[in-house]
Amino acid sequence: MAKPQKVDRFEKARLDKLGKIVELGHDPFGQRFDGHLKIEEARTKCPEESGANGEKVRVAGRIMLRRKAGKLRFFDIEDATGKVQLLFSRGDLSEEQWQLMGQLDLGDLIGIDGAMRRTDSGEVSIWVENLTVLCKSLTQPPEKHHGVTDVETLLRHRELDLIYTEGVRDKLVLRSLILDSVRQTLRGQDFTEVETPVLHAIAGGAAARPFTTHHNALDIDLYLRIALELHLKRLMVGGIERVYEIGRVFRNEGIDATHNPEFTMIEIYQAYGNYESMMDLTEAIVADAARIVLEKSGKTREDGRLILPWGESEIDFTTPWPRKTYSDLFKEHAGCDMADADAVRQKARDLAQQGSIQQEFIHQMETTDVHPDVVVSEVFEACVEDSLVGPVFVIDYPASICPLTKRKQDNPAIAERFELFIHGMELANAYTELNDPKLQEELFLTQLSGLSEEDSMAKMDRDFISALKVGMPPAGGLGIGIDRLVMLLTNSQSIRDIIFFPLLRPEVVSTEGDTEK
């Protein structure tokens, strides 16, 4: 039989106060509380002159600070819009209300009726006339001067992080505003938002390791989607000519500052467009979102430039952004022509000696028939991407590493693809979509040969090939990592800072009831 969880002394003290609240005839967990203003709005009703009573207001919030001075008690409460000071006067409250106030702790949620008043020191305040308990908190908040400093604790108990860590809630609210902005930009260009299946019979549309699950009724294995692409293209075949989805995708891979196994992306497809159309659309989406962030922070510039902080530097999102070819950037940063296979292989060896490329890849390169463009791609990632401050569009990739992409008519070795880089981070990926079903099937077969069963690209999506045979219009396709976009727009150096609940290792609870990490 499991032992009952121990109650610490702080929780016991709060439970005692909860009992006294009940004795006073109040519900310690509150009831409906109508008609209250946002604290931000209530503050506007405070008179300018000190000592004068202003309008009567009703507000609700969480107690963040308390102190006393003689027969006065001062509390600071906070809601999603701001803070305000409360003044409780022994002479102006009933005995019952004064006793009720005495049972309050930091973290409690309360409702207040009172008059706005500015103190002699100029502090906007509410002179309390009636107190309503809305929820008794049984948890001791973080120590006010030092707070919770362990990042794992903050992320595991995100509610504490949101309440007590300055700026966290603001960033996550900005995330919602950024998503609203993306949708508004796309609505303005006649795109239709859709929802497609999260469970897939075949994990297609990207090269990634999927999460696997099992459907009992049908007795089949299914995969959590790794991309949104193939279903959206089928909808475009069906006549939804401008279509997009913002959705969660899942990749059974590592975790770092820019990767989480469950993340949000948007994929967009535009019939009768190409990768240049997608560059224009990407600029519009990101610039509009940057403008919203600047407006929300009150930092818009008179010259209209879209400049936001990034660490100790800045990002200038003002459009248009430069467009540089893959081959030119390769030559600039790698110091050789990507068509010179021997020079590229030597560059790969040099980078491996510096630790920028894994020795395992070099061994594979030396002992097996690795395609030259695969070596080019490894070198590009190692010595070019981190140097791309941007925003900059890298365009015209080697066709052999882009199986879903249309080739340039005058040069079939080059794919009409771009990636958008900002401070070394890949933010967007786009193609002129391949709509030739025979060529697509051939490229799938070429790519699938030799892949292990667990690889997401090891099985061909026959339904997608069938849809292409119906006839898909020439189109541009675009994918943007929403989490990375929010990171860049909110000056967040880790993806965990802008995901409400990032994936963490599970806590281990010992037999004594103490939590271990």
From TrEMBL:
Binds 3 Mg(2+) ions per subunit. The keyword Protein biosynthesis applies. GO terms for biological process: lysyl-tRNA aminoacylation. One of its GO terms (cellular component) is cytosol. It catalyses: tRNA(Lys) + L-lysine + ATP = L-lysyl-tRNA(Lys) + AMP + diphosphate. Mg(2+) 2 binds at residue 426. Its cofactor is Mg(2+). Its EC number is 6.1.1.6. It comes from the Bacteria. Keywords: Aminoacyl-tRNA synthetase, ATP-binding, Cytoplasm, Ligase, Magnesium, Metal-binding, Nucleotide-binding, Protein biosynthesis. GO terms for molecular function: ATP binding; lysine-tRNA ligase activity; magnesium ion binding; tRNA binding. The keyword Flavoprotein does not apply. Its main location: cytoplasm. It is found in: Cytoplasm. SUPFAM superfamilies: Class II aaRS and biotin synthetases (SSF55681), Nucleic acid-binding proteins (SSF50249). Residues 172-506 form the Aminoacyl-transfer RNA synthetases class-II family profile domain. Mg(2+) 1 binds at residues 419, 426. Homodimer. Belongs to the class-II aminoacyl-tRNA synthetase family. This is Lysine--tRNA ligase.
